Amino acid sequence: MTTSTPAAAPRTLGVGLISVGWMGRLHTRAYKGIAERYPELNVRTRLVVAADPVPASQAEAVNLLGYERAVADYHEVLADPEVDVVSICAPNFLHKEMALAAAAAGKPFWIEKPMGRSAAESAEIAAAVAAAELVTAVGFNYRHAPAVEKARDLIRSGALGRVTNVRGAFFADYSSDPAGALTWRFIRERAGSGVLGDLLSHGLDLAQYLVGRIGSATSLTETFITERAKPSGAAASHFSRAEGTPEPVENEDYAALLIRFDNGAVGTFESSRISIGPRADYSIEVYGTKGSLRWNFQRMNELEVCLGTDGGAAGATGAAAYGYTTMLTSPGHGDFGRFQPGGGTGMGFDDLKTIEAAQFLSSVLTGEQLAPSVADGWAAAEIVAAAEASADDRAWHDVKVVTGPLTYDRV
Protein backbone atom coordinates (compact mmCIF):
# COMPACT_ATOMS: atom_id res chain seq x y z
CA MET A 1 0.00 0.00 0.00
CA THR A 2 1.34 3.37 -0.98
CA THR A 3 0.41 6.69 0.49
CA SER A 4 0.65 10.02 -1.21
CA THR A 5 2.26 12.99 0.44
CA PRO A 6 -0.35 15.59 1.32
CA ALA A 7 -0.08 18.79 -0.63
CA ALA A 8 1.36 21.67 1.32
CA ALA A 9 -1.19 24.14 2.59
CA PRO A 10 -1.32 27.28 0.47
CA ARG A 11 0.67 30.22 1.76
CA THR A 12 -1.35 33.38 2.35
CA LEU A 13 0.07 36.79 1.49
CA GLY A 14 -1.60 39.86 2.94
CA VAL A 15 -2.14 42.64 0.40
CA GLY A 16 -2.08 46.37 1.08
CA LEU A 17 -3.28 48.80 -1.59
CA ILE A 18 -2.31 52.46 -1.82
CA SER A 19 -4.79 54.51 -3.90
CA VAL A 20 -8.17 53.10 -4.93
CA GLY A 21 -8.46 54.31 -8.53
CA TRP A 22 -8.72 52.51 -11.84
CA MET A 23 -5.24 51.03 -11.48
CA GLY A 24 -5.85 50.11 -7.85
CA ARG A 25 -8.94 48.16 -8.90
CA LEU A 26 -6.90 46.48 -11.64
CA HIS A 27 -4.23 45.38 -9.19
CA THR A 28 -6.92 44.01 -6.90
CA ARG A 29 -8.54 41.94 -9.65
CA ALA A 30 -5.11 40.65 -10.62
CA TYR A 31 -4.40 39.44 -7.08
CA LYS A 32 -7.78 37.70 -6.97
CA GLY A 33 -6.96 35.81 -10.18
CA ILE A 34 -3.70 34.28 -8.98
CA ALA A 35 -5.14 31.17 -7.29
CA GLU A 36 -7.06 30.18 -10.43
CA ARG A 37 -4.52 31.12 -13.11
CA TYR A 38 -1.33 30.10 -11.27
CA PRO A 39 -2.28 27.21 -8.97
CA GLU A 40 1.30 25.90 -8.86
CA LEU A 41 2.31 28.96 -6.83
CA ASN A 42 0.18 27.52 -4.03
CA VAL A 43 -0.54 31.00 -2.72
CA ARG A 44 -3.69 32.82 -1.67
CA THR A 45 -4.03 36.57 -1.35
CA ARG A 46 -5.81 38.24 1.52
CA LEU A 47 -6.99 41.79 0.89
CA VAL A 48 -6.03 43.33 4.23
CA VAL A 49 -6.22 47.11 3.90
CA ALA A 50 -6.54 49.86 1.30
CA ALA A 51 -5.55 53.50 1.73
CA ASP A 52 -7.14 56.45 -0.02
CA PRO A 53 -7.83 59.97 1.27
CA VAL A 54 -11.28 60.08 -0.40
CA PRO A 55 -14.02 58.57 1.84
CA ALA A 56 -16.02 57.29 -1.14
CA SER A 57 -12.96 55.39 -2.38
CA GLN A 58 -12.46 53.88 1.07
CA ALA A 59 -16.06 52.63 1.01
CA GLU A 60 -15.54 51.17 -2.45
CA ALA A 61 -12.41 49.34 -1.28
CA VAL A 62 -14.37 47.54 1.44
CA ASN A 63 -17.83 47.15 -0.08
CA LEU A 64 -16.91 46.41 -3.71
CA LEU A 65 -13.29 45.27 -3.85
CA GLY A 66 -13.35 43.19 -0.67
CA TYR A 67 -10.63 44.72 1.50
CA GLU A 68 -11.09 44.03 5.19
CA ARG A 69 -10.70 47.70 6.04
CA ALA A 70 -9.80 51.04 4.52
CA VAL A 71 -7.88 54.02 5.86
CA ALA A 72 -6.98 57.54 4.75
CA ASP A 73 -3.24 57.45 5.53
CA TYR A 74 -1.03 55.09 3.49
CA HIS A 75 1.45 54.89 6.38
CA GLU A 76 -1.08 52.67 8.16
CA VAL A 77 -0.82 50.18 5.29
CA LEU A 78 2.97 50.07 5.56
CA ALA A 79 2.87 49.73 9.35
CA ASP A 80 0.39 46.83 9.35
CA PRO A 81 2.23 43.59 10.28
CA GLU A 82 -0.39 41.55 8.38
CA VAL A 83 0.50 43.26 5.07
CA ASP A 84 3.13 41.25 3.21
CA VAL A 85 3.03 43.00 -0.19
CA VAL A 86 1.99 46.49 -1.25
CA SER A 87 0.61 47.95 -4.48
CA ILE A 88 1.43 51.61 -5.11
CA CYS A 89 -1.13 52.99 -7.57
CA ALA A 90 -1.04 56.68 -6.66
CA PRO A 91 -0.19 59.55 -9.06
CA ASN A 92 3.42 60.08 -10.16
CA PHE A 93 4.22 62.87 -7.71
CA LEU A 94 3.63 60.51 -4.77
CA HIS A 95 5.63 57.55 -6.11
CA LYS A 96 9.01 58.44 -4.66
CA GLU A 97 7.67 59.26 -1.19
CA MET A 98 5.61 56.08 -1.03
CA ALA A 99 8.26 53.79 -2.53
CA LEU A 100 10.93 55.03 -0.12
CA ALA A 101 8.52 54.55 2.79
CA ALA A 102 7.70 51.00 1.61
CA ALA A 103 11.39 50.16 1.33
CA ALA A 104 12.04 51.55 4.81
CA ALA A 105 9.20 49.39 6.13
CA GLY A 106 10.67 46.31 4.43
CA LYS A 107 7.58 45.76 2.26
CA PRO A 108 7.99 44.34 -1.26
CA PHE A 109 6.00 46.60 -3.57
CA TRP A 110 4.44 46.68 -7.03
CA ILE A 111 4.51 50.21 -8.44
CA GLU A 112 3.18 51.73 -11.64
CA LYS A 113 5.32 53.59 -14.14
CA PRO A 114 6.87 56.05 -14.58
CA MET A 115 8.41 54.98 -11.30
CA GLY A 116 9.73 58.45 -10.50
CA ARG A 117 9.15 61.88 -11.98
CA SER A 118 12.78 61.88 -13.10
CA ALA A 119 15.75 59.59 -13.48
CA ALA A 120 17.12 60.99 -10.21
CA GLU A 121 13.96 59.99 -8.31
CA SER A 122 13.98 56.56 -9.95
CA ALA A 123 17.61 56.11 -8.93
CA GLU A 124 16.73 56.97 -5.31
CA ILE A 125 13.97 54.37 -5.31
CA ALA A 126 16.27 51.73 -6.80
CA ALA A 127 18.99 52.50 -4.22
CA ALA A 128 16.52 52.22 -1.33
CA VAL A 129 15.23 48.90 -2.62
CA ALA A 130 18.77 47.56 -3.03
CA ALA A 131 19.67 48.62 0.51
CA ALA A 132 16.55 46.91 1.87
CA GLU A 133 17.22 43.80 -0.27
CA LEU A 134 13.63 43.71 -1.52
CA VAL A 135 12.03 42.26 -4.62
CA THR A 136 9.68 44.56 -6.48
CA ALA A 137 7.58 44.93 -9.62
CA VAL A 138 7.10 47.83 -12.04
CA GLY A 139 4.05 48.03 -14.29
CA PHE A 140 5.58 47.29 -17.68
CA ASN A 141 2.61 45.10 -18.55
CA TYR A 142 3.00 45.11 -22.36
CA ARG A 143 6.02 42.84 -21.98
CA HIS A 144 3.66 40.10 -20.84
CA ALA A 145 1.45 39.90 -23.94
CA PRO A 146 1.91 36.34 -25.28
CA ALA A 147 2.52 37.72 -28.78
CA VAL A 148 5.38 39.82 -27.38
CA GLU A 149 6.82 36.77 -25.59
CA LYS A 150 6.68 34.86 -28.89
CA ALA A 151 8.35 37.78 -30.67
CA ARG A 152 11.12 37.76 -28.09
CA ASP A 153 11.63 34.02 -28.57
CA LEU A 154 11.97 34.52 -32.34
CA ILE A 155 14.39 37.43 -31.97
CA ARG A 156 16.55 35.83 -29.28
CA SER A 157 16.68 32.49 -31.17
CA GLY A 158 18.14 34.22 -34.22
CA ALA A 159 15.14 33.58 -36.47
CA LEU A 160 15.28 37.21 -37.65
CA GLY A 161 19.06 37.13 -38.05
CA ARG A 162 20.98 40.15 -36.85
CA VAL A 163 18.57 42.88 -35.78
CA THR A 164 19.21 45.96 -37.88
CA ASN A 165 16.47 48.45 -36.97
CA VAL A 166 13.45 48.90 -34.75
CA ARG A 167 10.43 51.18 -35.14
CA GLY A 168 8.02 52.00 -32.34
CA ALA A 169 4.93 54.19 -32.16
CA PHE A 170 2.88 54.76 -29.01
CA PHE A 171 -0.06 56.95 -30.03
CA ALA A 172 -3.14 57.73 -27.94
CA ASP A 173 -5.94 60.29 -28.01
CA TYR A 174 -6.66 60.68 -24.28
CA SER A 175 -5.52 64.32 -24.33
CA SER A 176 -6.62 65.27 -27.84
CA ASP A 177 -9.52 67.45 -26.65
CA PRO A 178 -8.33 71.05 -26.11
CA ALA A 179 -11.10 71.37 -23.50
CA GLY A 180 -9.60 68.52 -21.51
CA ALA A 181 -8.83 69.44 -17.91
CA LEU A 182 -5.42 70.55 -16.65
CA THR A 183 -4.89 67.55 -14.36
CA TRP A 184 -1.66 66.63 -12.58
CA ARG A 185 -0.44 64.85 -15.73
CA PHE A 186 0.23 68.22 -17.40
CA ILE A 187 2.12 69.80 -14.47
CA ARG A 188 5.88 69.09 -14.48
CA GLU A 189 6.25 69.20 -10.69
CA ARG A 190 3.58 66.51 -10.38
CA ALA A 191 4.08 64.35 -13.48
CA GLY A 192 7.63 65.00 -14.55
CA SER A 193 7.75 64.57 -18.33
CA GLY A 194 4.59 64.26 -20.40
CA VAL A 195 4.15 61.63 -23.08
CA LEU A 196 7.79 60.53 -22.74
CA GLY A 197 7.26 59.07 -19.28
CA ASP A 198 3.56 58.32 -19.53
CA LEU A 199 3.52 56.33 -22.79
CA LEU A 200 6.91 56.10 -24.42
CA SER A 201 8.59 54.63 -21.35
CA HIS A 202 6.48 51.54 -22.09
CA GLY A 203 7.77 51.43 -25.66
CA LEU A 204 11.39 51.93 -24.66
CA ASP A 205 11.18 49.16 -22.06
CA LEU A 206 9.56 46.94 -24.68
CA ALA A 207 12.40 47.66 -27.12
CA GLN A 208 15.00 46.72 -24.53
CA TYR A 209 13.05 43.57 -23.62
CA LEU A 210 12.96 42.48 -27.26
CA VAL A 211 16.29 43.70 -28.65
CA GLY A 212 18.66 44.80 -25.87
CA ARG A 213 19.97 47.87 -24.10
CA ILE A 214 19.48 51.32 -25.62
CA GLY A 215 22.80 53.16 -25.37
CA SER A 216 22.11 56.63 -26.79
CA ALA A 217 19.33 58.84 -28.08
CA THR A 218 18.49 62.12 -29.71
CA SER A 219 15.03 63.63 -29.77
CA LEU A 220 12.61 66.43 -30.39
CA THR A 221 9.48 67.19 -28.39
CA GLU A 222 6.53 69.52 -28.83
CA THR A 223 3.55 70.75 -26.84
CA PHE A 224 0.68 71.41 -29.24
CA ILE A 225 -2.09 72.17 -26.74
CA THR A 226 -0.27 74.75 -24.68
CA GLU A 227 -3.06 75.75 -22.26
CA ARG A 228 -5.87 73.97 -20.42
CA ALA A 229 -8.40 74.89 -17.74
CA LYS A 230 -8.14 73.49 -14.24
CA PRO A 231 -10.71 70.87 -13.22
CA SER A 232 -13.36 71.77 -10.67
CA GLY A 233 -12.92 68.56 -8.64
CA ALA A 234 -9.85 66.88 -7.23
CA ALA A 235 -10.86 63.48 -8.62
CA ALA A 236 -10.76 64.55 -12.29
CA SER A 237 -9.07 62.12 -14.68
CA HIS A 238 -7.21 62.88 -17.88
CA PHE A 239 -10.48 62.22 -19.73
CA SER A 240 -12.26 65.05 -17.84
CA ARG A 241 -13.27 68.36 -19.43
CA ALA A 242 -13.02 71.75 -17.77
CA GLU A 243 -13.99 75.35 -18.34
CA GLY A 244 -12.37 78.44 -16.93
CA THR A 245 -9.21 80.47 -17.23
CA PRO A 246 -6.55 78.52 -19.15
CA GLU A 247 -3.20 77.83 -17.52
CA PRO A 248 0.03 76.58 -19.15
CA VAL A 249 0.67 72.92 -19.97
CA GLU A 250 4.18 72.27 -18.68
CA ASN A 251 5.25 69.06 -20.41
CA GLU A 252 5.28 67.59 -23.89
CA ASP A 253 2.36 66.25 -25.96
CA TYR A 254 4.61 64.65 -28.59
CA ALA A 255 8.08 63.11 -28.75
CA ALA A 256 10.22 61.59 -31.50
CA LEU A 257 13.48 59.75 -30.83
CA LEU A 258 16.35 58.30 -32.80
CA ILE A 259 18.08 55.61 -30.76
CA ARG A 260 21.14 53.37 -30.92
CA PHE A 261 21.26 49.99 -29.20
CA ASP A 262 24.46 48.68 -27.67
CA ASN A 263 24.36 45.73 -30.09
CA GLY A 264 24.54 47.98 -33.17
CA ALA A 265 20.85 48.12 -34.06
CA VAL A 266 19.22 51.52 -34.57
CA GLY A 267 15.67 52.68 -34.12
CA THR A 268 13.02 55.35 -34.34
CA PHE A 269 10.31 55.93 -31.72
CA GLU A 270 7.38 58.31 -31.78
CA SER A 271 4.68 59.00 -29.21
CA SER A 272 1.70 61.33 -28.90
CA ARG A 273 -1.09 61.82 -26.38
CA ILE A 274 -3.09 64.23 -28.56
CA SER A 275 -3.45 62.26 -31.82
CA ILE A 276 -7.01 62.14 -33.14
CA GLY A 277 -7.88 58.64 -34.31
CA PRO A 278 -5.58 56.26 -32.41
CA ARG A 279 -7.04 55.12 -29.11
CA ALA A 280 -4.24 52.90 -27.81
CA ASP A 281 -2.15 52.37 -30.94
CA TYR A 282 0.99 51.00 -29.30
CA SER A 283 3.14 49.20 -31.85
CA ILE A 284 6.67 47.92 -32.31
CA GLU A 285 8.40 46.52 -35.40
CA VAL A 286 11.72 44.68 -35.41
CA TYR A 287 13.70 44.13 -38.61
CA GLY A 288 16.63 41.76 -39.11
CA THR A 289 18.84 40.29 -41.83
CA LYS A 290 16.60 37.19 -42.13
CA GLY A 291 13.15 38.52 -41.38
CA SER A 292 10.95 40.89 -39.41
CA LEU A 293 7.96 41.01 -37.12
CA ARG A 294 5.46 43.56 -35.89
CA TRP A 295 2.96 43.80 -33.03
CA ASN A 296 0.25 46.29 -32.11
CA PHE A 297 -1.51 46.38 -28.75
CA GLN A 298 -4.83 47.17 -30.45
CA ARG A 299 -4.56 43.64 -31.88
CA MET A 300 -2.62 42.25 -28.95
CA ASN A 301 -3.43 38.60 -29.72
CA GLU A 302 -1.81 38.77 -33.17
CA LEU A 303 1.83 38.76 -34.27
CA GLU A 304 2.82 39.45 -37.87
CA VAL A 305 5.95 37.58 -38.95
CA CYS A 306 7.92 37.43 -42.19
CA LEU A 307 10.87 35.04 -42.37
CA GLY A 308 13.17 34.82 -45.37
CA THR A 309 13.13 36.81 -48.60
CA ASP A 310 10.61 34.60 -50.40
CA GLY A 311 8.52 33.18 -47.60
CA GLY A 312 10.25 29.83 -48.09
CA ALA A 313 7.64 28.66 -50.59
CA ALA A 314 6.40 29.12 -54.16
CA GLY A 315 2.86 29.60 -55.39
CA ALA A 316 1.02 27.61 -58.07
CA THR A 317 2.45 29.83 -60.81
CA GLY A 318 5.96 29.43 -59.51
CA ALA A 319 6.01 32.94 -58.13
CA ALA A 320 7.42 33.36 -54.67
CA ALA A 321 4.95 33.54 -51.80
CA TYR A 322 6.27 36.46 -49.85
CA GLY A 323 4.86 38.64 -47.08
CA TYR A 324 3.65 38.63 -43.52
CA THR A 325 1.92 35.72 -41.87
CA THR A 326 -0.48 36.67 -39.09
CA MET A 327 0.05 34.38 -36.13
CA LEU A 328 -2.78 34.14 -33.57
CA THR A 329 -1.44 33.63 -30.09
CA SER A 330 -2.22 30.21 -28.65
CA PRO A 331 -1.27 27.97 -25.72
CA GLY A 332 2.51 27.72 -25.73
CA HIS A 333 2.97 31.42 -26.41
CA GLY A 334 3.87 33.05 -23.11
CA ASP A 335 1.14 32.48 -20.51
CA PHE A 336 -1.72 32.38 -23.02
CA GLY A 337 -2.77 28.86 -22.05
CA ARG A 338 -3.49 29.97 -18.49
CA PHE A 339 -6.28 32.21 -19.76
CA GLN A 340 -7.71 30.66 -22.94
CA PRO A 341 -7.87 27.06 -24.25
CA GLY A 342 -7.03 27.84 -27.87
CA GLY A 343 -6.06 30.51 -30.34
CA GLY A 344 -8.77 32.81 -31.62
CA THR A 345 -10.26 33.51 -28.20
CA GLY A 346 -8.27 36.53 -27.15
CA MET A 347 -6.81 37.77 -23.91
CA GLY A 348 -7.33 41.32 -22.62
CA PHE A 349 -5.53 44.11 -20.79
CA ASP A 350 -6.59 42.89 -17.35
CA ASP A 351 -4.99 39.51 -18.06
CA LEU A 352 -1.61 41.20 -18.59
CA LYS A 353 -1.88 42.66 -15.10
CA THR A 354 -2.64 39.19 -13.70
CA ILE A 355 0.57 37.91 -15.30
CA GLU A 356 2.35 40.88 -13.75
CA ALA A 357 0.89 40.07 -10.33
CA ALA A 358 1.99 36.45 -10.68
CA GLN A 359 5.55 37.48 -11.48
CA PHE A 360 5.55 39.83 -8.50
CA LEU A 361 4.25 37.22 -6.07
CA SER A 362 6.63 34.60 -7.51
CA SER A 363 9.47 37.03 -6.82
CA VAL A 364 8.26 37.44 -3.23
CA LEU A 365 7.87 33.69 -2.68
CA THR A 366 11.25 32.72 -4.16
CA GLY A 367 13.31 35.80 -3.29
CA GLU A 368 14.41 35.95 -6.95
CA GLN A 369 13.64 39.07 -9.00
CA LEU A 370 11.37 37.72 -11.74
CA ALA A 371 9.02 40.66 -12.35
CA PRO A 372 10.16 43.87 -14.08
CA SER A 373 12.23 45.49 -11.35
CA VAL A 374 12.84 48.98 -10.03
CA ALA A 375 16.17 48.72 -11.87
CA ASP A 376 14.17 48.27 -15.09
CA GLY A 377 12.08 51.29 -14.13
CA TRP A 378 15.25 53.30 -13.53
CA ALA A 379 16.70 52.13 -16.87
CA ALA A 380 13.64 53.41 -18.75
CA ALA A 381 13.83 56.70 -16.83
CA GLU A 382 17.44 57.19 -17.91
CA ILE A 383 16.42 56.87 -21.58
CA VAL A 384 13.71 59.46 -20.98
CA ALA A 385 16.31 61.71 -19.31
CA ALA A 386 18.61 61.42 -22.33
CA ALA A 387 15.67 62.26 -24.62
CA GLU A 388 14.75 65.32 -22.51
CA ALA A 389 18.34 66.57 -22.56
CA SER A 390 18.48 66.11 -26.33
CA ALA A 391 15.20 67.97 -26.81
CA ASP A 392 16.89 70.94 -25.13
CA ASP A 393 20.20 70.94 -27.02
CA ARG A 394 19.45 68.82 -30.14
CA ALA A 395 22.55 66.66 -29.50
CA TRP A 396 22.97 62.93 -29.05
CA HIS A 397 23.08 61.85 -25.41
CA ASP A 398 24.42 58.63 -23.94
CA VAL A 399 22.03 56.74 -21.67
CA LYS A 400 23.41 56.31 -18.18
CA VAL A 401 24.16 52.71 -17.20
CA VAL A 402 22.13 51.60 -14.19
CA THR A 403 22.80 48.96 -11.56
CA GLY A 404 20.53 46.35 -10.08
CA PRO A 405 18.66 43.21 -11.19
CA LEU A 406 17.62 44.10 -14.75
CA THR A 407 15.05 41.63 -16.03
CA TYR A 408 14.66 43.00 -19.56
CA ASP A 409 17.78 41.08 -20.59
CA ARG A 410 17.06 37.84 -18.76
CA VAL A 411 17.72 34.61 -20.66
UniProtKB/TrEMBL annotation:
Residues 14-140 form the Gfo/Idh/MocA-like oxidoreductase N-terminal domain. Residues 149-294 form the GFO/IDH/MocA-like oxidoreductase domain. It comes from the Bacteria. Keywords: NAD, Oxidoreductase. This is Gfo/Idh/MocA family oxidoreductase. It comes from Frondihabitans cladoniiphilus. The lineage of its organism: Bacteria, Bacillati, Actinomycetota, Actinomycetes, Micrococcales. SUPFAM superfamilies: Glyceraldehyde-3-phosphate dehydrogenase-like, C-terminal domain, NAD(P)-binding Rossmann-fold domains.
